[in-house]
Design goal:
The protein is α+β, with helices and mostly antiparallel strands. It contains 24 helices and 11 strands. A hairpin with a 5-residue loop joins strand 8 and strand 9. The longest helix is centred in the first third of the chain and has 35 residues. It starts with a helix and ends in a 31-residue tail after the last helix.
């Protein structure tokens, strides 16, 4: 099939190129505009308690004050606030009210004993912002306007004015995300151009994977927008940066898969078009199978209970499919119309086979000592996997997704140092009459219920003046926790609070615990669900893809086992780097999912490429050890180049300046290094060599290949890293 596809593309190269140009432009021009969500609650299904509590709040207390922004007042000299300062604070707060800033509903100035710290060094005001506009660009803009107007009003005083809170975080995340996208794209492009250029000793060839990625990037963005709109999916702010690296990284992988074969066929004596067609015929199945495995790994996230993954999964799956299609059509079309000399210019030795290539030597080592190689490489993965037992997750996305010098982070840090984090984002416990019971709450039972909430370990206080809805069916108890809303300690407190509130609810009523900490508690529960469902389903589907591609029952099992070890080893290495050597309290809660996405999926890519070459060499009649040696000799340069580029691309995340992307960049980079340079290069061929023909049972993967539909195919000469 792929030989026929190669013939078709070569013969109609210009039509293929024109189709990609027109199709990409049409898709992006007609795509709907999609806004990224910054509200964690949007990513949870409606049956979770925090979401049910949110519905109760909106229904029974629609006008309830919810701080969308926090105003922080401190003296510029760091001293205690004076009476004159407090008067200036009142004037600034009144001035902000008089400005009638769009979406700002109410500005509440600091009050003694409540929002002025005990040491008198800072004061905290609260601002209500229209909650119905949270998913619009106007919501973070309200925080920006508060900052601009507040600083203007604070001129001439001894006060430093800052704005934090949810809207301010959304504004800072928006700015930080834009910078991250730009840094990621530029750094990835530079890496690809330089590394590919050095590998093939050419200028144009270095730019080709970047130029070829433009079309799938544009086309995929349009398709993703259509799918997101059509199925009402949520879009997260980190999706765009990840999508850029996926298309550039995976696209470069597939480009290298084809490019090494193209050069190999040119060295064997094929003309340019025959070399392209034969290259597609030889690696097309590996690219399609690899893309299939990655697509399945991403698409299975539709089973996730977290909206950030149910939207990210399809988006990345679309990107991989489009990139694979471009790799099998657009890339060979361009290669068939560009003269080979121009592609590799100014290099002059691209037609010469280097003597004593390093991958030839590596192949010999694996072929001669497969048992030792399997033991060493597998042992390394096991040791790193054991380090993963120290993994601890954290849910503080705000602190992790932005640089610490952002204004909203400075406000949060001030609150943390002064013990005001819990007061800034309190928990709400709603006591509401059940649907079956109906009727109103008995006021005599409310004080006792509130007292029980106050006795829960981790609760700082329960406001005595609980609110009751107009219809008398629901009461709202404001509970201030001792710890930051996103901390693991606060999430543990929510568990205890629910355990106390549920049985303590008076007869005929139901208690629901809501608020930010409750949302994170439910995200934690949803993650546990995903680990039990998403991972096994993806594993089974990838196993089936490998079985169909290899026509084997045995090989897919040890391939998946190696990838599983790669996942555990990556988590272990990241745990050591950030929790043992570093000082982070925990790794971001979604990190294991992202390791699964990229290390499992793309690690399977490299295994597929190397195992496909192993099967090809076995079909040529070579014994298992000789096949392992030749597979590394021929496919090793591709795996090494692809793995190095993708690992370096992911490492660019560490330039973003925030903890989340630093952890993500390190984890994915080290995971790809393990996948390419430990699993695919050593562990997989060593195990295959040890198993021999049993690896291909019950299919005929190792049987000689008696011809295929090729174009003037001659026996290839050995290929090394030129």
């Amino acid at each position: 099939m792929f030989h026929r596809l190669g013939h078709f593309v070569v013969k109609r190269a210009w039509w293929v190129i024109i189709a990609w140009v027109i199709g990409s432009i049409a898709l992006v021009a007609g795509a709907p505009k999609i806004s990224a969500s910054t509200n964690e609650a949007d990513f949870l299904p409606k049956h979770y308690e925090s979401i049910r509590a949110s519905v109760v709040q909106q229904d029974k207390f629609p006008a309830e004050f919810t701080p969308g922004a926090i105003l922080m007042f401190e003296r510029t000299d760091g001293g205690a606030l004076t009476d004159a300062d407090k008067a200036d604070i009142a004037k600034i707060s009144k001035g902000l009210t008089d400005k009638h800033i769009p979406l700002v509903e109410q500005v509440i100035p600091p009050t003694e004993g409540r929002t002025i710290s005990q040491d008198g060094h800072y004061a905290m005001g609260m601002v209500s912002i229209d909650k119905t506009k949270m998913q619009t660009d106007d919501y973070p803009k309200a925080a920006k306007d508060l900052r601009d107007e507040g600083r203007e009003l604070a001129k001439g005083t001894a006060l430093k004015f800052q704005v934090g809170g949810q809207a301010a975080m959304a504004q800072d995340q928006k700015e930080s995300s834009s910078a991250t996208d730009m840094i990621t794209m530029l750094a990835t492009i530079v890496l690809i151009v330089v590394i590919v250029g050095v590998i093939f000793r050419g200028i144009l060839v270095g730019w080709l994977p970047v130029l070829l990625s433009v079309f799938p990037m544009v086309a995929a963005s349009g398709l993703i927008a259509f799918v997101t709109k059509l199925f009402d999916l949520k879009s997260s702010q980190m999706a765009s940066a990840i999508d850029i690296v996926v298309i550039l990284g995976v696209g470069t992988d597939y480009f290298l898969f084809l490019m090494f074969r193209y050069r190999e066929r040119l060295r064997a004596g094929d003309d340019r078009k025959a070399a392209v067609a034969n290259g597609v015929g030889r690696v097309g199945e590996a690219i399609a199978s690899a893309a299939g495995a990655v697509t399945v790994a991403f698409a299975v996230l539709l089973l996730s209970e977290l909206g950030m993954f149910t939207s990210l999964g399809p988006a990345l799956a679309i990107s991989v499919i489009v990139t694979a299609l471009a790799s099998l059509t657009l890339t060979p079309a361009l290669l068939s119309v560009i003269p080979a000399k121009a592609t590799f210019w100014p290099g002059r030795k691209w037609m010469e086979e280097p003597q004593g290539a390093r991958f030839h030597k590596l192949g010999k080592v694996v072929g001669h000592r497969p048992g030792l190689i399997a033991l060493v490489s597998g042992g390394l993965l096991v040791v790193l996997s054991l380090a993963g037992l120290g993994y601890t997750g954290t849910f503080d996305m705000a602190k992790s997704m932005m640089p610490k010098d952002k204004e909203s982070m400075l406000v949060l840090d001030t609150l943390s140092k002064n013990g005001g984090e819990g007061a800034a984002d309190p928990t709400h416990v709603f006591l509401t009459t059940s649907t079956k019971a109906g009727g109103k709450l008995d006021p005599a039972t409310l004080d006792g219920f509130g007292a029980k909430l106050g006795q829960v370990p981790g609760v700082a206080s329960v406001q005595p003046e609980h609110k009751i809805s107009e219809d008398g069916t629901t009461a709202d108890f404001v509970v201030v926790l001792k710890d930051s809303a996103a901390s693991n300690a606060a999430i543990d407190t929510i568990t205890k609070l629910r355990s106390t509130a549920h049985p303590a609810a008076p007869a005929g009523s139901e208690a629901l615990v809501g608020g930010t900490s409750s949302i994170y508690k439910d995200i934690k529960l949803a993650m546990a669900h995903d680990y039990k469902l998403v991972f096994p389903v993806a594993g089974v589907l990838i196993l089936l893809i490998l079985g169909l591609q290899l026509r084997s029952v045995v090989a897919p099992w040890y391939l998946m086992a190696s990838v599983g070890l790669g996942f555990a080893a990556t988590l272990g290495a990241t745990t050591v780097a950030f929790l043992k050597i570093g000082t982070e309290p925990g790794l971001m809660f979604m990190l294991p999912i992202f390791i699964y996405l990229f290390v499992v999926a793309i690690g399977t890519d490299y295994n597929i490429l190397i195992i496909a070459r192993l099967r090809e060499e076995a079909r040529e009649g070579r014994n298992p050890r000789e096949a392992a040696k030749e597979a590394i000799r021929h496919a090793g340069p591709t795996v090494a180049a692809a793995g190095f580029i993708l690992a370096a691309s992911f490492a660019t995340f560490m330039l973003a300046g925030n903890v989340l992307f630093a952890e993500l960049g390190f984890a994915l980079a080290i995971g790809i290094v393990l996948a390419a340079f430990v699993m695919a290069m050593f562990f997989t061929p060593a195990i295959t060599a040890l198993l021999g023909k049993k690896a291909w049972w019950p299919g005929h993967g190792a049987m000689p290949d008696h011809g295929s539909d090729t174009v003037d195919e001659r026996e290839p000469q050995p290929v090394g890293m030129a």
